Amino acid sequence: MNLIFLGPPGAGKGTIAKRLLDRFSLLQISTGDLFRENIKGQTEVGMKAKGFMDRGELVPDGIVIEMLKGRIAQDDCKGGVILDGFPRTIPQAEALAADSSVTIDKVVNFVVPDDVVVSRLCGRRICPTCGRIYHTVNMPPKVEGVCDDDGVALIQRDDDQPDAIQHRLVVYRDQTEPLIAFYRSRGMLADIDGALPDVGAIVESAALILEQLQG
Ligand code: AP5
User: Fold this and answer.
1) Mean pLDDT score of the chain
2) Is CB count within 10 Å lower at the N or C end of the chain?
3) Ligand 1 in reach of 120 Cβ (< 6 A)
4) The dihedral of CA 35, 107, 187, 1: what is its sign?
5) pTM reported for the whole predicted model
């Protein structure tokens, strides 16, 4: 089973994906996380991507597609993946459709209004060690600013600053939102309400879609 999680920045794609992985034996592939790992490791891909990411722009399609294809060809992806944040443009979706090694079973579209996105991203904090995602108000750690699992100081992403957030929303409307019509016209799209404050309820509505795919 291979899925795409589609939605605006801060829709909760990563948060919900992480809660489904064990239950459905899936692997999460986040192109954003892959780029952040490359930046940390100071690789050529990371150096090319950093400026675009910090400004809230998309990394050029050629770089993203090459990186994603390399990752998805690895053995640990054979059991099924959740693609989180890929594709984000029509050319990326077309490149994925042309790749005969991956069949996408469903595209889960997280519907979340802009005001919710902004408040989620402004308050997001991340553990740099394990990647666990927190929110200062909605999902705070037990001890302020410290990961429950690692005891490490939480960080704020460079692109979770107000100007970059606004720009990411504009980029989303312009370049990523057209994918909703692209996948809906192919009968592949399922919408879920990603704005619910109860994360468990969103997990269950996504899980229902996955269970239906499993038959
Ligand atoms: P990426 O890392 O993919 O960022 P994004 O799509 O902007 O999405 P996020 O990871 O920011 O949000 P999310 O939906 O996963 O939300 P989360 O679960 O964290 O990409 C970063 C950059 O990399 C891009 O801007 C681009 O430059 C580049 N890039 C990546 N992929 C690319 C591609 N394919 N092509 C080109 N460039 C690419 O939740 C957000 C917050 O809300 C958290 O604090 C969480 O605790 C909270 N929250 C979540 N759900 C709820 C809820 N139900 N109730 C209350 N709070 C909640």
Assistant:
1) 95
2) C
3) yes
4) positive
5) 0.95
